[in-house]
Design brief:
- This protein is an alpha+beta fold.
- The chain has a domain of 74 residues: Winged helix-like DNA-binding domain superfamily/Winged helix DNA-binding domain (Arc Repressor Mutant, subunit A).
- 25% of the residues lie in helices and 7% in strands.
- It has a two-stranded antiparallel sheet.
- Strand 1 and strand 2 form a beta hairpin.
- The protein is globular, with a radius of gyration of 21 Å.
- 20% of the residues are buried.
Length: 134
């Protein structure tokens, strides 16, 4: 081992299967979903792709509430399994939908549709009229 190079023999100098020297290529930060996200709100792009019923809603919210009608969907992971959105985004949206009364949070990570959520899906409730719980 050459004493002038403290990294000689270190596994970080070896090439991995991708030939990148053991470093993952994470790409530009703008390529990653929620890059720079603080966890409080999804990306601005998260809301921009489709019409939403109210300013506080995201494009996936109707799909999330609709999935919650199903007895086999009750968590953000189930929503992610249905390819509606990523689990962290689904978790955030479920919290928001619960805040506005469309879903009910039973315990951490477990939600159910409310009567208000059912009425929203039936077109009987305007989400612009809903206020968040404090």
């Amino acid at each position: 081992m050459d004493e002038g190079n403290p990294n000689d023999g270190d596994s970080s100098d070896e090439l991995d299967a991708s030939g990148s020297g053991g470093e993952r290529d994470v790409g530009d930060a703008s390529d990653r979903p929620n890059a720079g996200d603080t966890g409080d709100e999804p990306d601005a792009d998260f809301r921009s792709d489709a019409d939403v019923s109210a300013d506080w809603m995201a494009p996936v919210d109707g799909d999330i509430v609709e999935l919650m009608r199903s007895e086999d969907v009750f968590s953000p992971d189930h929503i992610a399994d249905k390819d509606v959105c990523r689990a962290p985004d689904a978790a955030y949206r479920c919290r928001e939908l619960a805040k506005y009364g469309l879903l009910k949070k039973h315990t951490m990570g477990m939600y159910d549709i409310t009567d208000l959520g059912e009425r929203y899906l039936d077109g009987e409730v305007d989400p612009n009229d809903l206020e968040p719980d404090s």
